[in-house]
Amino acid sequence: xxxVAEPTTLPQTQGGNQQNYDVKDMALADKGKLRIEWAEAxxxxxxxxxxxxxxxxxxxxxxxxxxxxxxTETANLARTLKEGGADxxxxxxxxxxxxxxxxxxxxxxxxxxxxxxxxxxxxxxxRHIRAAIAxxxxxxxxxxxxxxSSLLFISLNRLADVHPVVAEWASHLSExxxxxxxxxxxxxxxxxxxxxxxxxxxxQDGVLSFPVVGVNESDTKHLFDNRYGTGQSTLxxxxxxxxxxxxxxxxxxxxxxxxxRGVASRAKGMGAHVTVTEIDPIRALEAIMDGFTVAPMxxxxxxxxxxxxxxxxxxxxxxxxxxxxxxxxxxANSGHFNDEINIPALEKMAVSKRTVREFVEEYTLPDGRHIxxxxxxxxLNLAAAEGHPASVMDMSFANQSLAAEYIVASGxxxxxxxxxxPKELDSEIARLKLATMGIEIDTLTPAQQKYLTSWESGx
Amino acid sequence: xxxVAEPTTLPQTQGGNQQNYDVKDMALADKGKLRIEWAEAxxxxxxxxxxxxxxxxxxxxxxxxxxxxxxTETANLARTLKEGGADxxxxxxxxxxxxxxxxxxxxxxxxxxxxxxxxxxxxxxxRHIRAAIAxxxxxxxxxxxxxxSSLLFISLNRLADVHPVVAEWASHLSExxxxxxxxxxxxxxxxxxxxxxxxxxxxQDGVLSFPVVGVNESDTKHLFDNRYGTGQSTLxxxxxxxxxxxxxxxxxxxxxxxxxRGVASRAKGMGAHVTVTEIDPIRALEAIMDGFTVAPMxxxxxxxxxxxxxxxxxxxxxxxxxxxxxxxxxxANSGHFNDEINIPALEKMAVSKRTVREFVEEYTLPDGRHIxxxxxxxxLNLAAAEGHPASVMDMSFANQSLAAEYIVASGxxxxxxxxxxPKELDSEIARLKLATMGIEIDTLTPAQQKYLTSWESGx
Amino acid sequence: xxxVAEPTTLPQTQGGNQQNYDVKDMALADKGKLRIEWAEAxxxxxxxxxxxxxxxxxxxxxxxxxxxxxxTETANLARTLKEGGADxxxxxxxxxxxxxxxxxxxxxxxxxxxxxxxxxxxxxxxRHIRAAIAxxxxxxxxxxxxxxSSLLFISLNRLADVHPVVAEWASHLSExxxxxxxxxxxxxxxxxxxxxxxxxxxxQDGVLSFPVVGVNESDTKHLFDNRYGTGQSTLxxxxxxxxxxxxxxxxxxxxxxxxxRGVASRAKGMGAHVTVTEIDPIRALEAIMDGFTVAPMxxxxxxxxxxxxxxxxxxxxxxxxxxxxxxxxxxANSGHFNDEINIPALEKMAVSKRTVREFVEEYTLPDGRHIxxxxxxxxLNLAAAEGHPASVMDMSFANQSLAAEYIVASGxxxxxxxxxxPKELDSEIARLKLATMGIEIDTLTPAQQKYLTSWESGx
Amino acid sequence: xxxVAEPTTLPQTQGGNQQNYDVKDMALADKGKLRIEWAEAxxxxxxxxxxxxxxxxxxxxxxxxxxxxxxTETANLARTLKEGGADxxxxxxxxxxxxxxxxxxxxxxxxxxxxxxxxxxxxxxxRHIRAAIAxxxxxxxxxxxxxxSSLLFISLNRLADVHPVVAEWASHLSExxxxxxxxxxxxxxxxxxxxxxxxxxxxQDGVLSFPVVGVNESDTKHLFDNRYGTGQSTLxxxxxxxxxxxxxxxxxxxxxxxxxRGVASRAKGMGAHVTVTEIDPIRALEAIMDGFTVAPMxxxxxxxxxxxxxxxxxxxxxxxxxxxxxxxxxxANSGHFNDEINIPALEKMAVSKRTVREFVEEYTLPDGRHIxxxxxxxxLNLAAAEGHPASVMDMSFANQSLAAEYIVASGxxxxxxxxxxPKELDSEIARLKLATMGIEIDTLTPAQQKYLTSWESGx
Lengths: 459, 459, 459, 459
Fold this sequence. Notes:
eight-stranded mixed sheet; 15 strands; globular
C-alpha cells in the first residue's frame, strides 16, 4: 500500500474544517465531478430528499462526521446532508475503496472536507478517522463501526485499544475534552450488517453510550443493497480483476445471507456452478432448495475454481482450505472486513508472491500450486470495481439521510441502543422509488382492510 | 358440490370415537394405504420424530382434534401424534382438499377417526368440524383457524356466528358443558399465514383464550412449505386442470409473499412471463428487482392469460377485473380461502356456465368473453393436484409435531397469544433434514464464535 | 397391459371404414368432445389452416392413414385433414398414450375411424396398425415410423419381420395386392426425431420407396414441441406420477438434444439439481456452460434421485446403472420408444415388483434397494400426463397439415428420401403463431436488406 | 480518436518484418506479458495445440497475415502459429479493441510484428492493414473480412473501392505485383458471423478467389464464443462503462442469434427485464417461449432503459428510435461493425455532446432528452471491457489454429468458397476442452451404435 504524507493542514479540534482535507490529486476533480453527476442521475429518491432538506434545513447547525466508502454515491449523500444544513466531514471507511477523483471533487466542487486516498496505509487510515473525530460530531455515520469504536475507546480512556495515531492525538486531550467530544454526540448511523453486529456487541457489553440507527436493518436497505447491489458488484469486481468466463465455472459462495444469496443467484444466472457454505442449517436448506450445492468448506475447497466470502466472520478461508485448493484457485472477499480470508496464514505458507494483473496477487505454495488473491482480500466490489450501482445506493442513502434527520429530531430522547428506522419511513422510501420508476401498485380497499383485521369469516 | 349423508354414528361428546368416521368409500383404503406409505418414504424427519414419540409417549392421554387437509402427508402426521400417545380425531379443513382414499385408509388401517369427503357441501363440512369439537380436545390443530374460531364462538355463547349445524348441536349443551369443552384446551397449533392473521385478530380483540403456536412462523415451515411447496404445487394444479403451455404464457401472480414468490419464480423457470401485483411497496420493489413486471391489478387484468391469487385477502379478483380480462382468461386461487376471487360477482355477471374439463368451469359473459375458473376458487394445489409434496410437508409437520409436544409440555403456563416455536426446535428440524439428505455444513470455530460477539477489532 | 378384444368389425381392405373403429368406451365421448374443444381453443394456427382447407379442399379424395398419439391435439389435426377433403383413419402410435375419451369422441362426433385403446397389448397395437394399412393410404403419417416400416416389410415380402398379427393378414394378400397397397402411397410424414433416424436408416439401406417429410426437422416443430412441449410435459408426468418435490432434488437428464435441454432447463427452473449425460462432446460442453453438471451415467447413477432418458437410443439405463443407484431411485423415459431403459434386465434383477401408485412400479432388488419405474418405461408425458400442451402441438400439427398438402401437391415428383418442409412454410407457421399472440416483429428495410447481401463496406 | 504517427519503419513489400511494428508504448510490454500469461493459463486447449505445433511444424515457412482484435487471447494464438513455424504479422481488426500493453509485449517478448494502437484513426487503421497485405501472406486471418476485402479490391484493380491509404500504396505496384500478392494466398480464415456474411456475398458475386474457412461456423466456436463469450463480455462492458444496476432495468436486445440470446439470458440472470427485437419469426417465437418480451424496435424504443444491438445489420437503431427513446436511454453495440447504430443521424440530431464517463458520450437532443452512446458504437465488450474471456477464446482460437493447418495441408486443392472446419476437428476441440476440465462423458456401446443405424425394431 502507498505510504501517504501528512495532510497539508492538521485537523483542528473544533469546527472550521473548510480548508482541511487529504486527497490524492486535486487535478482529478473534473473527472470526479462528472462521475458524481452520473450517479446523481440514477439517485432520484435522494434527489427528492435533498430538495426537501434544502427547503426545510433539518440538519441546520449539526456537525456530521461520516466514515464511509468515498464513492460517487457517498458524494451525493454528503451533498444531501450539507444542503440540509449540516457541517459534514468525510473520511474513508476502507483503505482501498476510495475513488480519488470523487474525493478531489468533493473538496473542490462541493466544499466538503474529505480525508481519503485509495491505497492509504493503516496509519493514514486512522489519521483520517482522527480528523473525523476532531470534527466534534453531533452525528456519526459509520460503515463498519470504526469511527464509533474509536470514539468509544477514547471516551472510555482505553487508549491502548485504539490505533496509535488516534491514541497519540487523544493523549493530548484532557479527560474533560475527551468527555466533551463524546457528550456532544446525539447519535449515529451504521450502514452494514458487520457494523450492526459490532454495535450489538457494544450494547451487550454496556458500552454503547448513544443511540445508533442500524440503517442496514431497513428493508429498503438490506433487501436491495445487499442482495442486488453486492450481488452484482461482487461479480463485476471479479470480472474486472480476472476477466474469467463465469459460464461453467465452479464458484463457492461462503455465506447465504442477503449478500451471499445475491451473489449466488447472479452467478447462477451467468452460468456458473455454485456451491454454498453455511453454518446455519435453515439457510443451508434454503440454498439446496434454491438449486445450489451445499458443502462444508473443507470439502468445497478441494474441487472449485473461485471462492467468494460474504459471511461477516473470521478466517472463513484458512490454512487447511488453502492446502486443499486446486492449482489456480481464485479467492476474494466481499464481506466487510478483510478478516474473512486468513491472509497472514497464506503469506506464511507461500514461497513467493507477485502481482500478475491489477488487483490479482499470485501466491505460490511449496508444492507449486498457485492461489490468486483479489484486491488484497478487501471488499472486492469496491477494490476492483466501483462499488454498488448508484440506483441501489439511492435507497441505502435515502435511509442514511432520513436516519440522520430522525436522530436529530428525536434528540437525546432515544435509548442507548441500536435502532431500526421506523417502518413508515422504510415504506416511504420504497414508495418514492416506485414513483420514480413510474410503477403503480395496488392499495387495499376498505373491505380488504377490514377483512385482514377480522377473524370471524372462515370457510 | 356433493351432498353428503349423515355420518353413520353420531359423534359422542367425549372420547371413544373409535367407531366413528365419515369417509366416502372404505373400498379406497388399499390405494390410500400405498399412497400414505409413498409419502412416508419421503418424510424422514417425521419418521425420526415418530420413532422418538413412540418411545417417549409425550402426548400420552392427550386428545387432539386436527382440522387439516386430509392428504397422505397429514396421514403421516396423524400417525405420529397417535404413536406419541395421543387420541386423535381428524376432520377436513377444506371441502375440496380431501383425498378420499387416504381418509378411508386412516380409518381402516391406522384407527384414526376421520371426517372428510372430497366435494362435501358446507353443511357436511361443519358437521365434520362439529365432530372434532365433540372430541373435547386438549390440543387443537388448525389450517385456517376454522376449528378454533368455531370453538371460541361456542365458548363466547355467540351461536349466531357459527354455522347452523354447529350451533344446533351446541344449543343442546348447557353453558357449563360449553365452558368445559373450552377449559379442557391446553393450546393449539395453526398451520397457515391466513390462520395466523385471524388468530392475531382474535388476540387483538381479546378473545383468544389459550396459547396457539403459529407453525407457519417457523422458518422451517414458511420458508419451505410456502415457497417451494405452494410454488410447485400451484403450477402442478394449474397444469393438471388445464394442460396449458407455460412457456410464453402471461401469468399474473397476486401477492409477493412467500407463496407468491415461490409461484412467480417457478413460473418464470418454466418460461412464463410473470406480472406481480402487490399492496406493499417494498415487496413490489423486490419483485421488480427479481425480474418481474409489477402492475396494479386493474392494469394487469387487461392483457394477461392466467391469474393466480396468493394474498390471504378478499376479492383480489373482482368484478372490475373480470370486465377487463381478455377472452379465455384462466383464474385460480392458491391462497387459503376461496374469498380471494369474488365468485358470487362472477356468477352474477355470467350469462351461462358449464364444466369444460375436470376442475374447469367456463363462465360466459354477456359480451361473449369466457372466463375459466379452476377448482371452484379453492386452493388450486389441493383441488386439482395432490397438495404439497411430502418432502416439504415433512418439515411442516415436524413443526406441528414438536409444537403439539411443546404445548403439552409447557402446560397452561403460556400466555393466551400466538407463539412461535422456539428457534432451537426450528433449527433442529433443519438439521435433521440436512442429515437425511447426507449434507454436512460448517460449524463455527471458537475463534469465529468469539469474533461475532466482540466489537473491538476493526479495519 | 389390458388384453383387448377384436374390433367389432374387421377392417375392410379398401375405403368405407365409416363403421369401423376400436375404442374403449363410447360413453366417454362427451368428456372427450369437451376436451377436444378445449385444445382447439389453444390451436389458433391449426384453426386457420382448417378454415383454408375447408375452402380449398387440397386433400380431396386422399386417403390418409395416421399412426399418432391419440390425444386431444391429434383429434384437431384429424379434423383439419378431414375438412380438407381427406378420408382419414387413425391408429395409436404407442400402447399407453391413447386418451380413451378422445378416441370415442373422434368416432362419434367427428366420424373419424379410430383404433386405439389406452393400455392395449402388443397384439392389439398391431391389429390397429393393420387397420391403418388396410385403409390403402395415399398418405401416411407416423410418429416413430411403425406404420411405414410395417408397410415396407410387407411390400418387401419380409413378413417374418413384421408383427405376426400384421403378417398373418398380409399372408392372405397376393403379391399384386401387396404391391398395390404400396404403389398407391404418394408419400408420408413423420413426427419425431426417432422416426427420422429410422427413416434415414431406411434411406441408407435403399428401402425407402416414397418421399417422407420429416416434420420434426421444421424449426417450428423441433425447436418448440421438443424443447418447450417435452420439456414441460415430462416434468408434468413426473409430478403426476410421483408428487415429489423438485426443489433440491438431484435429477439426471440423459441426452442434451432439444428434448433433453427443455427438460433440464425447466427442472433447474423448479429448483432441481440437474446432471446431464451425453455422448457428444460439443453438447456436453454446452450443458456445462449452461450451468449443468455433466458426468458419465455410471457415475451419475451412484448419487442421484431421479433419472429421465431422452436420447432416442437403446439401454441408456442398464443393469450396471441399476446396480449403482441409491435406494428409492425413480427412473422414467421421455424418449420415443421404451427401449431407453433396459426393463427386461430390471425385471430379471428384481426379487419382487408391485404397483405403489398409478404409473409407479416398485422393483425390489436382492440387496433390499427399491427402484421405481414410471409408466412402464413408455413416454412419461403421455403415459402419466396428457402429452404436450395444445398450444405447442398447434405448430407441430400445422406442420403436419402443410406437409400432407405439400406431399399431395408435389405428387410423385419428389425423390424417395426424407424431406424437410420448405423454409417458407416453416416461417409462415411462425408468422401465423405470432399473429395469434398479437405480437409484431421488425422487418428489414431495403437498406438493411442490401447491406446483408453486400460485402464492400467494412470498418 | 487519436491521430497516430507513421510507423517508425515502413513495411517492406516482402518478408523481413522483424523490425517493423506500430504500437503505442513499448513501456507497457511488462504489463502486457503478465496479462498474456494470465490468459494462457486459461487456454489449455490452445496450449496443447501449441505443443504439437512446436513438435510438428505444420506451418513451416508459411507467411500469415492476421487482422484480429489485438488482445491477450490473440497473442496466444499468434504465439501458437509462430511456434508452428509460421511467419506472422498482426494488425488490428477494430480501431478501439487493441490492448496496447499486449501489442507492446507481442513485439518485444514474442517477436511478432504488430500494428495496432487503441483509438487509432481510420487512416492508421488502414495503414496497419496495408502492412499486413505487404507481408505477402500465404494465409490470411480475418475478423470481419477487412483484410480479405482489401486484398480482393487490389487484385481486382478496384483501387477506388479501397481506403486511400491502401490505394495509394497499391498504385505503386505493377499489375503483376498485385497479382503476385494475390496468387501467393493459399487460403484464409474468418472469425465472425459478420465476416462470413460478407464472404458469402463475395462467393455469390464470383469474386472470392481462394478458399476461406469460416471458423465461426464451427460448433465449438459459435455455440460458445458467441453465446457465452459475447453474452458475458457485453454485460461486462456495459457495467464497466456505466456501473448501472441490472436488476429491474429494462433492456432491449436487438437480435436473437447466438450472441443475442447469450446476452438476453445473462441479463435476465442478473435480474433485468429483457425485450428482444427480431426480424425472423421463428427466432421471435423462441424468444417469447424463453420468457422474453418481443416487440418491434419502434415500440421497444419508447419505454426501455438500455439498448444493445447484436444483429450484424445496418442502422438497427435509427433516427425514429432516438426520437422515441426516454430521457437517459443508454445505447450500445455488440455486433461486429459500428453500423448497427446510426451514429451520423444521432450526431445530426443532437444539439450538444460531451463525454461524461470514460466510454460514455452524452448526446443532448433539441427537446432536452439525453441519449448515452457507449464506446462510440463499437463492439462494447472490446471497447469498454477486455473482450471475451480467455477460456472461451481457447476454443475459438483452437479452431483458428486447426483451420490454418487445414488450409495449408489441403493446399490449393480446395474450391474457392467458404468452408466449415470438418466435424471431426470440431468435436476434437470439444473433447480436448472437456479433458482439461476433468470431465468424462459417455460413449456408445456397440449395441447402441447399431441401434441408431437400424430401422427394423419399433414398438
